[in-house]
Amino acid sequence: MSGPVHALWRVVRERWLRHQLMLPEFAFLLDPPPPDEWVSLDCETTGLKVGVDEIVSIGAVRIVGDRILASERLEVLVRPQGKVSEQSILIHRLREKDVAQGVPAQEAVKQLLHFIGSRPLVGYYLEFDVAMLNRVVVPLLGWGLPQAQIEVSALYYDHKMRQMPAHQRQAPPEIDLRLATLMNDLGLPMREAHNPVNDAVMAGLAFIKLRHLARNN
């Protein structure tokens, strides 16, 4: 898509979204994003089925330039309507009595939207988190999260491809995209996984490092 066509598409899309917006107080989501700022986020859920499972916690941190603003973070416990399975408790260690102290999903998402603003989103397998959030966002606003989305595992894949000789890129070997492998390969510290803030911080660190490597490649 050429520059002028892309710019026109963005204008038309923004006007359509503003027209469809069900809560005008969230129009700020469509503003131009602050330069060189992003939000890294992660969700813990009752399972991996987008149409069935629910969010039990959300974590997010702001990124400005090459820094993660650890003091500017969001961590919210969410009270699901259904049960928390034993299998999911083994992963995120949030029991039913823990999430019973949480806020309803709609309130949690409103807090997240105010925290994100119009900043692009960063995450590790972000597509799943966005799909889970949109189950709440779409009925609330009339459309899903409008921010640009940056997938850390895709950036890492591109980084590994750039490191290969040209002849190998035609049929590249399988690239290990597991978070632990990614963090270790990039020389970044691992935090305890399946804590949403920790996972958001790790994705943010990987994003910063991969941007730096791409700029200097």
Write a short abstract of this structure.
With 217 residues, this protein is an alpha/beta fold. Helices cover 44% and strands 17% of the residues.
Task: Return the string of H and E elements.
Answer: HEEEHHHEHEHHH
Overall, the morphology is: globular
What fraction of the residues are assigned to beta strands by DSSP?
15-25%
Largest sheet: 5 strands, mixed
Number of domains: 1
What is the strand tally?
5
Number of helices: 8
Q: Please tell me the CATH architecture by its name.
A: 2-Layer Sandwich
What is the helix fraction of residues, given as a range? 40-55%
The H-level CATH homologous superfamily, spelled out, is Ribonuclease H-like superfamily/Ribonuclease H
Please identify the top-level CATH class. Alpha Beta
* CATH fold description: Nucleotidyltransferase, domain 5
What spatial order of strands do you see in the largest sheet? 3-2-1-4-5
Mean pLDDT: 90
Radius of gyration: 18 Å
Decide which structural class fits the backbone: alpha/beta
Task: Explain what this protein looks like in three dimensions.
The protein has helices at residues 3-20, 86-92, 96-99, 105-116, 126-141, 152-163, 179-185, 196-215; strands at residues 37-45, 55-64, 67-77, 121-123, 149-151. With 217 residues, the protein is α/β, with parallel strands linked by helices. It has a single domain (3-215), classed as 2-Layer Sandwich (Nucleotidyltransferase, domain 5), CATH 3.30.420.10. The chain has a 5-stranded mixed beta sheet, sandwiched between helices. Helix 5 (126-141) links the parallel strand 4 (121-123) and strand 5.
